[in-house]
Amino acid sequence: MNEASPRPSLSRHGAGAQFLETVAAWILGFLWILPLIYAFWTAFHPSEFSTRFELLAPLTLDNFRRAWEAAPFARYFLNSFMLVTMVLAAQLVLCTLAGYAFARFEFPGKEIAFILVLLQLMIMPDVLIVENYTTMSRLGILDSIPAIGLPYMASAFGIFLLRQTFKTVPRELDEAARVEGASALQILWKVYVPLARPVYLAYGLVSVSFHWNNFLWPLIVTNSVSSRPVTVGLQVFSSGDQGIDWSVITAATIMTSAPLLVAFLLFQRQFVQSFMRAGIR
Amino acid sequence: MSRGAIHGWLLLLPAFALLALFTHWPVLGTIWDSFHATPKGGRPAPWVGLENYQVMMADEVFWKSLWNNLWYALGTVPVSIALAILMALWVNSAMRGRTWLRMAFFTPTILPMIAVANIWLFFFTPQYGLLEQVLRPFGIASRNWLGNPDTALACVTLVAIWKEAGFFMIFYLAALQSIPPSLAEAAALEGASRGYYFRRVVFPLLMPTTLFVMVNAVINSVRLVDHIFVMTRGGPNNATSLLLFHVYQVGFSFWDTGYAAALTLVLLVVLATVAIGQFVFLDKRVHYQ
Predict the structure, then answer these.
(1) pTM
(2) What DSSP letter does each residue of A200-250 carry, written as one string?
(3) Which tens digits make up the pLDDT trace of A46-69?
(4) B 161-200 near A (Cβ less than 8 A)
(5) What is d(CA B257, CA B260) in angstroms, rounded to the nearest whole number?
(6) Burial zone of A219 (CB within 10 Å; 0-12 exposed, 13-18 middle, 19+ buried)
(7) What pLDDT score does B282 carry?
(8) Which residue from A12, A251, B81, B251 has the least number of CB within 10 angstroms?
(9) pLDDT 10s digits, B158-168
(10) B19 → closest Cβ in A117, A133, A231
């Protein structure tokens, strides 16, 4: 996103009004970030300061240590990491192949197949939990990481996004490669994929943040420490019998959000740009 | 079939097989199962006709969830869209600190809903929560925001708005940046006020984005129930039970899969209506080509 140059200002908009508007924007921005500031305050201070706001309250990392020791978060992080990696890898391969088929091939039933793919934009796996649970049970893979990822691997969103991108690749490039004797898959790999790199980055960021944050389906399909992602782990931890030590729960909350939060703060522009790119269709 | 046609289908096949297994088949299965009892002890489930639907008609929690979900949608969709437009206009202007503002507005989007729900739960805690501490000096009586059926739904709606507005802002930001600056210059030359320029130029140009965002917001009002698990578990007295949450309870707390399928079908009908509505009434301008 370019840092926009000042627009020519419209009339009847005095300096006073502009000042008030800036103040209003800052207040809204502050309100928006307030829950997060509050969480950081609570997590980094001893629990007696969790509801008292004194500037000189001592800082501590003790809440994080206690949260880390109270539940197998290391394993949860590993599970989440394996989940997002597995899902993204499968999505990239499947959506690339399908997007290429829709963009550059003519085959009988193409129109209807495309509509059947787009159906998933409306009816996401998130609402088909009852039937998909039965399917996973029949496949005998309940309580496993692949079971969490499988319903999302063929992503209509990804197929659509890549189809749109591949359609913008000039046919001449395609034909030049064909004249040199390249096969369909070689052309895909050598011509289309490199040109779509920014779209892959955008899609990857959206996918990773979606699956890191996903909760309901993993909650249903997992049942043990060895397969739970961090979101479900956090829920099990915070609804368990820890007592209500808010400082520890908040520390755990920040811990589970930390990887995305840090990545976001470091690569803010890329994140915003990626969500923008992925949304324009 | 030509070689191209065979190649096309072969490329599509892996993705299509997974879609069929985890989207198309479950949709058909939902319809089929909704006319069957819940299978017991490995025997196939008997056909029960409309019995699950009769149960649904008599299920007070279902009706309560339906109404709650309607209010939830009516709360989240217009408010988050209006806020998103406002945020985008601010972030896109020459305002001081707009990079900071963009970050503040967008941050909720990338955080796990289940995690931030914990923060909000603490925020709403009676007596100790931040909300109470802020309101106390104004003499507003202490109350249990999430434990009171009158306020609980509003609280979870607020959290959903907070989570979504910054996400929708991004789409408006993209749309605003595609409006040629010459339009604003022309309006300025004509002496148009800022409000007039927004109403007559910017807002109409944002219309396709608004339609797109609206469809997503409606889908999210069906889908976004994670925070219910942390903040209220559907309570008090089902005041915050939403349809998908009710499906979860029936399907995975009571293990009544036949009835859960019937409830899921209600969700699918809602989503299909949105899809058809978008296709027929709204989306004439957006072509998938």
Answers:
(1) 0.89
(2) HHHHHHHHHHHHHH--HHHHHH--STTT--HHHHHHHHHTSSS-S-HHHHH
(3) 877 776 677 777 788 888 888 888
(4) 162, 166-167, 170-171, 173-174, 177, 181, 184-185, 187-188, 191-194, 197
(5) 5
(6) buried
(7) 59
(8) A12
(9) 999 999 999 99
(10) A117
